[in-house]
Amino acid sequence: MAERFALAPKSAFAGLMAPVGPTPAGVIVTELVGLGLAAVEPRKGRAAELIAHVEARYGLSPPRSLRRVAAGLVAFLGVGPNRWLAVSESGAGFTDDLEAALDGAASVIAQTDGLAVLRISGSRVRDTFAKGLPIDLDPRAFAVGDVASSILAHIGVTIWRADETAYDVAVPRSFAADFSHWLAESAAVFGLADGGGEADYGDSVGT
Q1: Is 2 left (phi over 0), alpha (psi -120 to 50) or beta?
Q2: 77: helix, coil or strand?
Q3: What CATH number has the domain bearing residue 94?
Q4: Regarding predicted confidence, which is higher, 18 or 8?
Q5: Which residues make Cβ contacts (< 8 Å) with residue 139, sequence separation at least 6?
Q6: Is residue 67 within 8 Å of residue 145, measured between CB atoms?
Q7: Do 152 and 182 form a contact (C-beta atoms < 8 A)?
Q8: Percentage helix, strand, coil, to 5, in the chain?
Q9: 96 with 158, same domain?
């Protein structure tokens, strides 16, 4: 009898996030594994139809600004005018479900195999980002749920504020080694530690 194998997503950062610097660490990094990700953009003249389909299927209204809105296992991040990054905790099958739900009203491009998401937190996380991210992360300028697309260490990233002390960063998987090197170098003086497993993505909900 043939043996069956179940395929599982491979971590983009496995073996790349060795602890560095003093302890207790001021920066904690955890890869959020098992997510489904897709870029979503309405077809010409069908933005209202797209929004209606998302509301009906997922119980949320895609944000009209650079914000994160979530309901249940699914979140939509505004990354530009009528452009979103859709993220689901359910992982497998999310893009197919999204395409079916939108019923041709939008272009849906799978990003699950192209992006990895890290949750970076700790008392010195803002000091670390200041070494490479040209965005003001002061809470008065970048609140919980805010989203931005930018360049960090010559790498295009999408970043959003998960809670009062944590930020989630979507990084192209092909740049995982480069990003890890930048993070280790930038956080070394504060201490960098691996969060030790998958964070609960559902802990943070923007509005």
Answers
A1: beta
A2: strand
A3: 3.30.70.1520
A4: 18
A5: 164
A6: yes
A7: yes
A8: 20, 35, 45
A9: no
